[in-house]
Design a protein that fits this description.
Order of helices and strands: HHHEEEEEH
Radius of gyration: 26 Å
Strand content: 15-25%
Helix content: 25-40%
Distance between the termini: 84 Å
Number of helices: 4
CATH topology of one domain: Nuclear Transport Factor 2, Chain: A
Shape: extended
CATH class of one domain: Alpha Beta
CATH architecture of one domain: Roll
């Protein structure tokens, strides 16, 4: 009887411990971040995820603080993880002064003038409302064959 109750208590304790700690997805995400060359070069690592929020489309929103070997915050990162598949390369913000947390700065626009979704040069929409691809010249078509 004592042996049976001991086995039951051990089983319950194991089940309770299995529910504690980070999930498999969180562990994979942290491992992916901590294997990144950029973090390794700067002597940083992710100790814990500050935000790991699941969206309805099986994508997790991830935010974490990057710390050095003395647990001093040196940066912050944001990323996404597709459940059971991959972790997207994060956007990293390194702090100006280590140990002083900063608000997330919006990245500068990377598109130059005339690129992206801005106004077209010359104004209005394209003819026919669709992208016009250049026509191949007869010499190019013959060379490709």
């Amino acid at each position: 009887m004592k042996m049976l109750s001991l086995c039951v208590l051990t089983g319950i304790a194991c089940l309770m411990l299995a529910g504690c700690g980070p999930s498999v997805e969180e562990r994979k995400t942290m491992a992916a971040f901590n294997d990144m060359e950029e973090l390794i070069q700067r002597g940083g690592y992710v100790k814990k995820l500050e935000r790991f929020e699941k969206r309805p489309d099986k994508v997790f929103i991830v935010e974490a603080e990057i710390v050095d070997e003395n647990d001093v915050p040196i940066g912050r990162l944001r990323s996404e993880r597709v459940e059971g598949f991959l972790t997207v390369r994060p956007r990293i913000q390194w702090y100006e002064t280590p140990g002083v947390s900063e608000e997330w700065r919006q990245p500068e626009r990377r598109r130059g003038p005339g690129q992206g979704r801005g106004q077209r040069q010359g104004g209005g929409p394209r003819e026919g409302g669709q992208r016009q691809w250049p026509q191949a010249s007869p010499e190019t078509t013959e060379a490709a064959e």
